[in-house]
Amino acid sequence: DQQIPQVNYSPMSNETAQRRMALANPDRVSHARQSDPSANLRPPDAGTTAGRYEPPQLQHHPDGRQPSSDSELATTQIPPHERESVPEPERVLPVLRVLGQVGGNYIIAEGPEGMYLIDQHAAHERVMYEKLLAQYHSGNLDQQRLLDAVVVDLTPDQLGTLESCRNDLLGLGFDVEDFGSGAVAVRAIPAIMRGRNIEDNLRLILDEIASGGRGDSMFDSLVISAACHSSIRSGQTLTLPEMRELIVQLERCSSPRACGHGRPTMLLMSQDELARQFERR
């Protein structure tokens, strides 16, 4: 099950020890070195193929316990930024009947028009994107407070990008503090990113923003990137109930046919096309 990343410690300098002690009370700090992200125990992330997917609506504690305090999981009221409204729905999907999975990447489903082949990562990214936007616009953000703050080493370029989008990151649920010597301490993340590798994902998000992002604004690019890195990965085997839950949530999306990056979430092969392929017409 998904857990907050744990870190193997290595010998530290006096400067590093002093910096850590500055954060030791009231919060404990785990230091994650950029040079060795594999030291963290983490669930499958970008590019991995192992692991199981938890249905996106489930928000239970990673170890099965209910949150025992506000420091573990809190719903934070964050005023919405001044921003354009959520676009109107492009098209509502028909009700789909899930049949199975192909290659750990695609879900096969049947609809009134024919057979659908659905990219599980792109579909879940769309679900996460609209979920983040809905929380943001309502001001009712699900935020995961970390028991152990996570220290992340950043490059100068990444630090510069962080400064330029710090308020937008806060609006999404990130609580990031300067830690000195090119590092930051992450004290909270959006709840949808719970169990993911915090260090890697923060760097990936900042790099994507620095390269221009894919949204119509910096904030929209942040939402797209956060949704992408919160989603199930290609190569993950899903159970039939998990696939059904994902498709139900995709059906509820306002724009279900493309992920936040603009890639298609599905392909449709109509009844006529199927008949032609099998030379029935």
Structure description:
By secondary structure, this protein is of the alpha+beta class. A hairpin with a 2-residue loop joins strand 4 (about 105-110) and strand 5 (about 115-120). It has a domain at about 95-265: Ribosomal Protein S8, Chain: A, domain 1 (2-Layer Sandwich). The chain has helices at about 15-25, 120-140, 155-165, 165-170, 200-210, 220-230, 240-250, 270-275; strands at about 30, 75, 95-100, 105-110, 115-120, 140-155, 175-180, 185-190, 265-270. It contains 8 helices and 9 strands. It is elongated. Helix 2 (about 120-140) crosses helix 7, helix 3 (about 155-165) packs across helix 5 and helix 5 packs antiparallel against helix 6.
Low-confidence stretches: 1-13, 22-84
- Tell me the CATH architecture of the domain at 97-266: 2-Layer Sandwich
> What is the name of the CATH superfamily of the domain at 97-266?
MutL, C-terminal domain, regulatory subdomain
What string, H for helix and E for strand, traces the elements in order?
HEEEEEHEHHEEHHHEH
Number of helices: 8
The radius of gyration computed from the alpha-carbon positions, rounded to a whole number of angstroms, is 20 Å
Largest sheet: 5 strands, mixed
Please give the share of residues in helix: 25-40%
Mean pLDDT: 77
CATH class of the domain at 97-266: Alpha Beta
Shape: elongated
CATH topology of the domain at 97-266: Ribosomal Protein S8, Chain: A, domain 1
Give the N-terminus to C-terminus distance in angstroms. 50 Å
Structure class: alpha+beta
- Note the beta-strand portion: 15-25%
Total strand segments? 9
